[in-house]
Amino acid sequence: MLDRLMKRAQQAETFEISSESTQIGFEADELKSYQVDQTSGKAVRVVVDGRLGFAASSDASAEEKLIENALESARHGDTVDITFPGPSSGPGVQVYDERLASFPVERLIGIGREMIAVIKEADTGALVNVDLERRVRRTTVRNSTGAEATVERSLLSIGLRIDRVKGDDVLGIYEYFSTAALNQDYRAVAERIAEKLRLAQKVIDLGSGRMPVLFAPAGAPVLALPLMLGLNGRDVYRGISPMAKRVGETLFDEKLSLVDDPTLDGRPGSGSHDDEGVAHRRTPLIEDGTLRGFLYDLKTAAQVGAAATGNGERGLFSPPAPSFSNLVISPGNTPLEEMLEGMGEGLLVESPLGLGQGNVISGAFSNNLALAFKVEKGEIVGRVKDVSIAGNIYQDLKRIEAVSAESQWVYGGMSLPYILLAGLN
């Protein structure tokens, strides 16, 4: 196919994907669904007279039509000085576990029931919804420069939603867990939720105003989302990132360090190469508060005159775009217990009620909270309701009171510590 494409294009690339997914669903403590999905297909990119074309199909017999669609797309595509990568060796990272790939359905159901039992032990009135997915995904990128990269991943993803209603008190807790290796981490997730339920039994008032706010790992994406947008090469190219053209400047407190790291064994975002065949590598983005760089796929790197960082991610029917693999905010030196003791009276944010409210790209956030606790004299004294927080990371992260020595993997691809801000509305 590449040979045929190269007779009519200056550069060409094929991307093949196959995926099999087994999904188990529990609703209100009971097993409700079981399904298996299989998808496969091929995508093509070409460069013709400096213009980039893209087409994709799930029909294995439609190669000629796929070629014609890609060439037609290039006639109207973006003018980009893109160069597909040559052959390269990526890191030897483990993201395929045969035990997980062949994991029996009965055992998946058993994991769901085990997690429900742990949570129900903490609160018999809680209704537990669990969605489990085991997926095996294989991708292969080939291009006209001779590069070829195949990445096979085994993934286990678990989403949990807990609903508890007592009179007019409605409590909702959501957690998401993902791994590329078979382990017992799911048990720790269930135990964390159980502890949150126990702490949430007592409801207490919290006055409005400016006060210390401690973000738990599951709540810290409130701060991480604006950072992720600002560090995305596409937003840098578009000129809307507040961090554009500021590499080398100290923009945040020296306690903040952030990297993109696809070289970690067992993490869903890891692998030897990205979805464009660029070798993965660890990319420092913020180091001791100083901006070190951005994440680029091939296209955005060409648009801004930078080098691709190996962060091109795609689906079958969507062209590559820059994306985080594994976002890691470095832990600090302060134990969580010491952080709580130093707060006085303040707020512990466990989870927001949605993300993205406000002008997020500017750094602003304004979030209602799904789960939060009041802290007094180093102790969590009760759950608070009807609370919202607001601020801007480009001001608030210039003064970080402390970053915890402890960290957790949350939402699949984020390793986050506890982050204490001295004052937040």
List keywords for this structure.
425 residues, alpha+beta, 11-stranded mixed beta sheet, 6-stranded antiparallel beta sheet, 40% strand, globular
* H/E element sequence: HEEEHHHEEEHEHHEEEHEEEHEEEEHEE
Range of strand content:
35-45%
Outline the biggest β-sheet: 11 strands, mixed
Mean pLDDT: 95
Percent helix: 10-25%
**Helix vs. strand class:** alpha+beta
3D shape: globular
Q: Find the count of extended strands (DSSP E, 2+ residues).
A: 19
CA radius of gyration: 23 Å
Distance between the termini: 58 Å
* Annotation field: number of helices: 10
Quaternary status of these chains? single chain
Low-confidence stretches: none
Question: What would you say this structure looks like, in words?
Answer:
The chain is of the alpha+beta class and 425 residues long. The protein is built from 10 helices and 19 strands. The protein has helices at 2-6, 63-75, 98-101, 105-122, 185-199, 221-230, 233-238, 298-304, 336-343, 393-396; strands spanning 11-27, 30-48, 51-57, 127-143, 148-166, 169-179, 211-215, 258-260, 283-287, 290-291, 312-315, 318-322, 327-329, 345-352, 364-376, 379-383, 388-392, 400-410, 414-424. The strands form 3 sheets. Strands 7, 8, 9, 10, 13, 14, 15, 16, 17, 18 and 19 form an 11-stranded mixed β-sheet that branches. It has a 6-stranded antiparallel β-sheet with strand order 3-2-1-4-5-6. Helix 4 (105-122) packs parallel to helix 5. The model has no long low-confidence stretch (mean pLDDT 95).
